[in-house]
Design a protein that fits this description.
It contains two helices and 26 strands. By secondary structure, it is mainly β. A hairpin with a 5-residue loop joins β13 (154-156) and β14.
Length: 298
């Protein structure tokens, strides 16, 4: 049952993701940062890859690049990406898998198409989220949490119209397995026409929904949100309602994210996110002097 409208968050804005190119020719839709939305504290970036058809033997992927001061969360829905980093980790992110990588004090990694997928081709579809770290954790040792699709908890409604993958946080009484350094909710809802769910969220968290596919109805007033749109919620209530109109032509795939804001100064330069410009300059010097090892050289 949907709670009364006064218990739900309002909608602050609905914005379109911006198409751009990342890495070696990888086309993405960037939900934020954009001209309209700089960040949603503690989240720094959300990129949506695909869905796109990849021909056999393509070019594409994101070659070696450095990070410091935050986390990257790669969620692959279709396709296969090979990850390599300067701590010696090598792994394949496959369909439904999540890689939660904490850059901490510094890491260099690459995200390229897996060799088998590269030669065979197929569909590539996924997202990457950047999560800021509080000052106390920005220089922590890097860590790597690969989570196979089979290890991600799921739940579904009795009528079969709703399915959710719980990447972080809790939904429908089921809790995620991944460890987060700050409180985070990261849910992937699949909702059939006529389905709806009220998702409770901590009232002190910032929250947004991103429509991966299909059209969704959002909030107490069933505002329509289209594929590739970001719905930013206000902080004037508890949870939110996600649904799909009964006469919709297809299901909707929706990401719902929420996190406790860190509320610290942000100094940002490309792949480095710190608290001061002095720390940014130090990160650049550390990278230029070889203190960030390249993948395979750890």
């Amino acid at each position: 049952m949907t709670p009364p409208s006064q218990n739900q968050r309002g909608i602050a804005s609905v914005t379109d993701a911006t198409r751009t190119i990342e890495g070696d020719g990888l086309e993405i839709r960037r939900a934020f940062p954009t001209v309209q939305i700089e960040l949603v504290d503690p989240f720094l970036l959300l990129d949506h890859m695909g869905p796109m058809a990849i021909a056999a033997n393509p070019t594409g992927g994101v070659p070696d690049h450095a990070h410091r001061g935050f986390e990257t969360v790669t969620y692959l829905i279709d396709g296969a990406i090979e990850h390599r980093d300067s701590t010696g980790n090598v792994g394949i992110i496959g369909p439904g898998d999540v890689q939660w990588m904490t850059a901490g004090g510094g890491i260099v990694h690459s995200e390229m198409l897996d060799t088998n997928f590269f030669h065979a081709g197929g569909t590539l579809h996924g997202t990457q989220l950047w999560v800021n770290l509080p000052a106390r954790d920005k220089m922590m040792p890097p860590r790597y949490q690969p989570v196979a699709s089979s290890e991600i908890p799921t739940a579904q409604s009795d009528d079969g119209k709703l399915h959710v993958k719980i990447i972080a946080g809790e939904a429908m009484g089921v809790h995620a397995a991944v460890e987060t350094l700050t409180p985070i909710t990261y849910l992937h809802y699949s909702i059939a026409p006529g389905g709806a769910i009220y998702q409770a969220l901590p009232p002190d968290n910032n929250a947004f929904a991103y429509i991966l596919q299909g059209d969704a109805t959002i909030g107490a007033n069933n505002r329509l949100a289209l594929e590739g749109q970001l719905v930013l919620f206000s902080n004037d209530g508890g949870g939110v309602t996600l649904g799909v109109a009964p006469d919709a032509q297809r299901p909707a795939e929706i990401l719902l994210l929420a996190g406790r804001p860190i509320n610290e100064p942000i100094a940002r330069y490309g792949p480095f996110v710190m608290n001061t410009q002095t720390e940014i300059r130090q990160a650049i010097r550390d990278f230029q002097t070889g203190q960030f090892l390249r993948p395979g050289n750890a």
